[in-house]
Amino acid sequence: MRITRRLAREIAEGESKRLIARGIQRNQIDDGAEESSEEDEESEDENEDEEEEEEETGQKGITLTVSYENFFQHSAKKKKSSTSNNTLSQLPSLTLQESVALLASIPDHHATEVQNLHDHHRQQFTQWKYEVDNGYNILLFGYGSKRTLIEAFGREELAEEMSVLVINGYFPTLSLDSILVQILQHIAPKVTTTGDKVNLIHTHLAQPLALLVHSLDSPVLRLPKNQQILSTLASNKYITIIASVDHVNAPLLFDSLRSSRYNFLWHDATTFQPYRTELSFDTTTFLAGGTSATSSVGGLAGIKAVLTNLTFNARAFYKLLLQHQLPLHAENNESGTQEQGITFPQLRQLCAKKILPLANPATLRGLLGEFFDHGLVVRNDGRGSGGTTGSKGKGAGEVLFAPFGKNVISEVLEFLGGQVES
Questions:
Q1: Tell me: the pLDDT tens digits for 200-255?
Q2: What is the 3-state secondary structure (H, E, C) of 234-269?
Q3: DSSP of 196-208
Q4: Spatial distance between the Cα atoms of 159 and 370, rounded to a whole number of angstroms
Q5: In whole angstroms, what is the distance from residue 337 CA to residue 328 CA?
Q6: What is the enclosing helix (H) or strand (E) of 137?
Q7: pLDDT at 268 (0 to 100)
Q8: What is the fold, at CATH topology level, of the domain defined by 109-279?
Q9: Separation between Cα atoms, residue 227 and residue 105, nearest integer Å
Q10: Can you name the residues that pair with 137 across neighbouring β-strands?
Q11: 117-121, 183-187, 234-238: the lowest-pLDDT one
Q12: Environment class of 93 (CB within 10 Å of its CB; exposed 0-12, middle 13-18, buried 19+)
């Protein structure tokens, strides 16, 4: 017991001696710092900063020690950060009326300068008319909407000498077939619009005709087949084309053959006018409340995106369905109805002739379920009453159809033609 007390006393005395030695060393350092401060005040500030850093370092060391000892205790109290579930679909949607109102409320910046630029372009109308009279077509490029400029030129310089048709290339449901039908109905109203429409136009066109094409490089008109047909029309001596392009890569549309057929003279027509009308027809994620089935699936771009990700047999099946439905559509139909539809047994027989694996009822039902989910096919009862989607009637039975207008179906069929054949 005495030995233990003696050892404890010796340890305490040794510890006190060490503390005293440390204090003496610190006092010596402090004395040296005071002597140096009398010689140089700036040196004193630096020493004081170093001393403060040493004290802070010591405090940090203590803090780190405490944090290390309580690491697991503090870690258990922390909550894991959760990943945000916010998506674009959660943003508030706009109705068509709200979208149009917002576009109309955009202020016209630099209105005076923009009007002066527009007036400058109008002074070129005489030059453009001279070029048209000598067999050239006009292509306008540059930043800003060129609708007003093109239509003013057609109205003031061309309307007195030839018929003028306006083609709104930015319209999402536009199809080249509808353009050809419109031209035929204008030049030869009594001619049936079946068969090779381009050949019919070349045969019956005997008077000058001007086509004012807005957005020749739009997603619909930029397709190779459409560009080929339009350039063929442009080569007709009776047809004059006044067109506009907006995409920076628009010149890539024209190879040597198309360039020679179009025979364009390019003019910089930068207007800085907003694309209000062009954007009002754009189907976007934030536009809701639309009544058409096309807008509900994201427009033509949405339909094509879904079909691109489907299997070869699925695209071939959808092509068969649309080919059956297209002849039953009227020209002015904006959406498909069950009058253009087909029953499930008829569809199964059609698949048995073209796509043998889909002749199995279970396989065909499974594939239809995928089209139902994407909104590309609708099923109604066959009683002509427009029954609820998914119901089955006791009369003619279930009727299947694509809920799109004739122009949309024509465009999708043209897209599927290249997809299925590849």
A1: 999 999 999 999 999 999 888 988 889 999 999 999 999 999 999 999 999 999 99
A2: HCCCCEEEEEECCCCCHHHHCCHHHHHHHCEEEEEC
A3: -HHHHHHHH--S-
A4: 51
A5: 10
A6: strand 137-141
A7: 95
A8: Rossmann fold (3.40.50)
A9: 36
A10: 264
A11: 183-187
A12: middle
Per-residue confidence (pLDDT) for residue 269, from 0 to 100: 94
Domain borders along the chain are 109-279, 293-421
CA 115 to chain centre: 31
Query: In sequence order, what are the beta bridge partners of 3?
Result: none
Nearest C-alpha neighbor of 258 from the set 131, 137, 143, 419: 137
- The DSSP code sequence of 55-76 is HHHHHHHHHHHHHHHTHHHHHH
Identify the pLDDT of residue 57: 46
The percentage of the chain sitting over the pLDDT mark of 70, rounded to a whole number, equals: 65
Among the CATH numbers 3.40.30, 2.30.30, 1.10.10, 3.30.980, which is that of 293-421?
1.10.10
Instruction: Give the pair of three-digit tokens for residue 348.
Output: 């199964």
Residues linked to residue 164 through DSSP beta bridges, in sequence order: 210
- Dihedral (CA of 124, 130, 133, 134) sign: negative
Give the separation between CA 165 and CA 271, rounded to whole angstroms. Answer: 23
Residue 60 CA to residue 112 CA, distance in Å, equals 66
Instruction: Give every CB contact of residue 401 below 8 A, 6+ residues apart in sequence.
Output: 321, 325, 336, 337, 338, 340, 341, 342, 377, 378, 380
Report the side by side order of strands in the sheet with 342-343.
342-343, 398-401, 378-381
The amino acid that residue 301 corresponds to is A
The string of DSSP codes covering 153-183 is: HIIIIITTTSEEEEEETT-TT--HHHHHHHH
Amino acid at 327: P
Q: What tokens appear for 99 in the block?
A: 């979208």
Output Rg (C-alpha) for the chain, integer angstroms. 39
pLDDT over 60 at 283, yes or no:
no
Helix boundaries (H) for 70-110:
71-77, 96-104
Residues in the chain: 422
Compute the C-alpha angle 312/315/317, nearest 5°: 105
CA angle at 189 for the pair 183 and 195, rounded to the nearest 5°: 65
Closest CA to 302 of 193, 408, 213, 196: 408
For the segment 407-422, what is each residue's pLDDT rounded down to a tens digit?
Answer: 778 878 888 875 554 4
Query: Tell me: the pLDDT tens digits for 35-73?
Result: 544 555 555 555 555 555 545 444 444 444 445 556 666
